[in-house]
Amino acid sequence: MENNGKKKSDDSFPSLYLQPEKMSNHGEPDSKTSDIYFNIYPGDVLQDRYEVIEKLGEGGMGKVYKVNDLENDKLVALKITSFPSVNENNKIGMRFSREIEAMHQLVHPNITQVYTAGEYKQRLFYTMEWIDGCTLKEAMANCSQTVLLRIFMDVIRTIEYLHNQHIIHRDLKPENIMVTKTYQPKIMDFGLAKFTEKISRLTEKGAVFGTIDYMSPEQARGDISNIDHRSDIYSLGVILYQILTGKTPFQDDEMFVRIKNFFTASLIPPKEIIPEISEELSNTVCKAMAREQKDRYQCITHWMKDLQSIVEQNETQ
């Protein structure tokens, strides 16, 4: 899909659209899933406007609820921090604010739209569009490879737009990409997004962030100064690898072994796993996932053009 070239800002996160948590007969969360820091419950109304319907999920920064916007009479998703905005966890509030800033700068049909932002009981929150669909991870189990490749091409066009706005996502993975019932992707979770024209002090040198199966080698090393748009290209390469082969590379039940494989094991080309995959398509994935940044695609547009040509050629065969 083509973007409309405008700007906007906000965020979203991995566990954004999970199954509603189990409720007791009294409408309160089961004790096993209750958050010890903060909770809002079905029936609660925030700022006399947002009526809580159900909790959808939670992540490191906060929780997401399905709510009814009483003012506009429509369903929206509401994300709220678990901690007060000013306390010992102030970095969470700062990341949350950066997430909102990023999403409000981005106006694109494939990026989750943010509506409002505010504060409730000293917790920051924002509302965003409600997406009726599933994650890309779930779509991988139910859609044909042809459909998945079309979705992926829309994803890569969206990340091209993101990079053109001088923003790096830094946490691209199937759980952070929603897919609507019309197969339109929606990029979420900008909590780790980095503005390349600004100096970020929220991530300390040596800190490791992201999701191990999808993060780039430089992210895994905590090499903050070298993380750039090519880090997103690597993560997208992993996603495409998974679409083509049904699994991520360097898998192992033991986390230590997975991390070790990540740095030492050779990448098995997709074609060696699924012989029907074309040599050209397999090669583009391997190039996107090169361990050294200098060996990857240096620009997402170049990779996108290569992929477009290969996908179109495969569809005509």
UniProtKB/TrEMBL annotation:
<dbReference type="GO" id="GO:0005524">
    <property type="term" value="F:ATP binding"/>
</dbReference>
<protein>
    <submittedName>
        <fullName>Putative serine/threonine-protein kinase PknB</fullName>
    </submittedName>
</protein>
<dbReference type="InterPro" id="IPR011009">
    <property type="entry name" value="Kinase-like_dom_sf"/>
</dbReference>
<dbReference type="GO" id="GO:0004674">
    <property type="term" value="F:protein serine/threonine kinase activity"/>
</dbReference>
<feature type="binding site">
    <location>
        <position position="79"/>
    </location>
    <ligand>
        <name>ATP</name>
    </ligand>
</feature>
<feature type="region of interest" description="Disordered">
    <location>
        <begin position="1"/>
        <end position="30"/>
    </location>
</feature>
<feature type="domain" description="Protein kinase">
    <location>
        <begin position="50"/>
        <end position="311"/>
    </location>
</feature>
<dbReference type="GO" id="GO:0005829">
    <property type="term" value="C:cytosol"/>
</dbReference>
<keyword id="KW-0808">Transferase</keyword>
<feature type="compositionally biased region" description="Basic and acidic residues">
    <location>
        <begin position="1"/>
        <end position="11"/>
    </location>
</feature>
<keyword id="KW-0067">ATP-binding</keyword>
<dbReference type="InterPro" id="IPR017441">
    <property type="entry name" value="Protein_kinase_ATP_BS"/>
</dbReference>
<dbReference type="InterPro" id="IPR008271">
    <property type="entry name" value="Ser/Thr_kinase_AS"/>
</dbReference>
<dbReference type="GO" id="GO:0005776">
    <property type="term" value="C:autophagosome"/>
</dbReference>
<dbReference type="InterPro" id="IPR000719">
    <property type="entry name" value="Prot_kinase_dom"/>
</dbReference>
<dbReference type="InterPro" id="IPR045269">
    <property type="entry name" value="Atg1-like"/>
</dbReference>
<keyword id="KW-0418">Kinase</keyword>
<dbReference type="GO" id="GO:0000407">
    <property type="term" value="C:phagophore assembly site"/>
</dbReference>
<dbReference type="GO" id="GO:0016020">
    <property type="term" value="C:membrane"/>
</dbReference>
<dbReference type="Pfam" id="PF00069">
    <property type="entry name" value="Pkinase"/>
</dbReference>
<keyword id="KW-0547">Nucleotide-binding</keyword>
